[in-house]
């Protein structure tokens, strides 16, 4: 096989009949056929189907996404705009595949893909998710710093006083997905109020409340069994804990404690406060399929 075969975009059968060439010997004007088919047997061995991409090749947009720069969809825009180079040449082709050893530059910076890491933390009180205090010991990132050398980010935000489940990852696509207002995964919150929640107020929340000219709906709301009427369970789609607080503040209740009990099918089972764990393969698959 020619060393260029597989990379040559020309028709491998051009200038040939059926992809194989006839023998060069002739008798008068009629070609001499070396076998009954009229083609050389040795030529059969040289014609191979176009090589498939190697299993370790990766689409350029995924390579960029795996490097943590942006999502695959955003990477397509950068590629089309001519902001991505492979081995010193600008690549604008959609579907271009990066091979092992290729040097990829994104906006002038050399990038490398990272293994995706997914960490679930049971966040304690008095730790912030604010990007302003990333290096602070009071930032949630200080709690998961030993989980990975990769730069992890929290999925969503929590104020200092809110506790419970918080997911971290370097998977920018997953972060973008769960940051979308259209994200439809359920979260369960345990809310502790400064006084008992009146039944009529519980019904108001169940039927939907207007907050800042937007009607807010919950999936479920109820008193927590065997607890005081100030202990409420609220199930909602939103990952914005501020909305949960505002619901009760709108009805003149103060939220004393707010704890996220479940997040997109993940639970606090066997995960004490302040501890973290890696997600299982099945949990990762479930998150991506939501």
From TrEMBL:
It holds the Pfam family S4. The keyword Isomerase applies. Keywords: Isomerase, RNA-binding. GO terms for biological process: enzyme-directed rRNA pseudouridine synthesis. Residues 58-125 form the RNA-binding S4 domain. Residues 1-11 have a biased composition (Basic and acidic residues). Belongs to the pseudouridine synthase RsuA family. PROSITE patterns: S4. GO terms for molecular function: RNA binding; rRNA pseudouridine synthase activity. This is Ribosomal large subunit pseudouridine synthase B. The keyword Ribosomal protein does not apply. InterPro entries: PsdUridine_s_RsuA/RluB/E/F_cat (IPR042092), PsdUridine_synth_cat_dom_sf (IPR020103), PsdUridine_synth_RsuA/RluA (IPR006145), RsuA_PseudoU_synthase (IPR050343), S4_RNA-bd (IPR002942), S4_RNA-bd_sf (IPR036986), TruA/RsuA/RluB/E/F_N (IPR020094).
